[in-house]
Each structure stands twice: as structure tokens, then as C-alpha cells.
Amino acid sequence: MGKLFGLVVIVLGIYAGMELYTEGTRGAFGGALVDLGMVEAPAAGEAEEAPLDAIRSRAGDSADRAATRGQDQIQE
Predict the structure, then answer these.
(1) Is the pLDDT score of 5 beyond 80?
(2) CB 31 within 8 A of CB 52
(3) Which of 4, 2, 23, 24 is nearest to 12 (CA)?
(4) Which parts of the chain fold into alpha helices (H)?
(5) DSSP summary character for residue 32
(6) Stretch 31-39: mean pLDDT, rounded?
(7) Residue whose C-alpha is closest to residue 25's, from 12, 13, 42
(8) Which one in 10, 14, 35, 73 has a CA-CA gap of 20 to 30 Å to 27?
(9) What does the alpha-carbon distance between residue 21 and residue 43 come to, in Å, rounded to a whole number?
(10) CA-to-CA distance for 69 and 63, rounded, in angstroms?
(11) How confident is the model at residue 3 (pLDDT cuts 50, 70, 90)?
């Protein structure tokens, strides 16, 4: 019974971590953290960018810069 409880706690911890990582603190669990007052609500007109979107954007920008540098080196 103790092993089952430990396994359930681990699975719930992974779920909570992934929810916070993918949705951000304001969007996690359907906005429950905002409703409970644990996280500040977004200001009017403010949109929170999901963490994965920010990572994808930075990665794309980095790839574009590398491609441009590579093309510049080939042309020289």
C-alpha cells in the first residue's frame, strides 16, 4: 500500500509540474491558482506568453541568425 501511495504522489507531482511548465502559473489547472489568490491575475489587455512559445520563439530566432551567418560566410 505504501508503494502505491508513493507512486500516486510521484505521478501527481509530474502532472502538476508539467501543467505549470506548459501553461504557466496563470493558466495552470484552468486558472485555479488565480482564483485561489495564489497568483496575481493578468492586467487588462495583458496576455501571458506560454513558456513553450517563448522557448520556440528564441530557438527560431537563433536558428535564423545562424542561417544568415552561414549564408554570409558562403558569399564571402
Answers:
(1) yes
(2) no
(3) 4
(4) 2-27, 32-35, 51-75
(5) H
(6) 76
(7) 42
(8) 10
(9) 21
(10) 10
(11) very high
Distance between CA atoms of residues 44 and 46, nearest Å? 5
Q: Is the pTM of this model over 0.70?
A: no
Residue in this structure with the C-alpha cell 507512486, named with its chain if needed: 7
Distances (CA, A) of 9 to 3, 12, 14, 23, 34: 10, 5, 9, 21, 24
Instruction: Specify the pLDDT at position 14.
Output: 96
Domain ranges of the chain: 2-75
> 18-22, 48-52, 72-76: which has the highest mean pLDDT?
18-22
Please state the φ and ψ torsions of residue 64, each to the nearest 5 degrees.
-65, -45
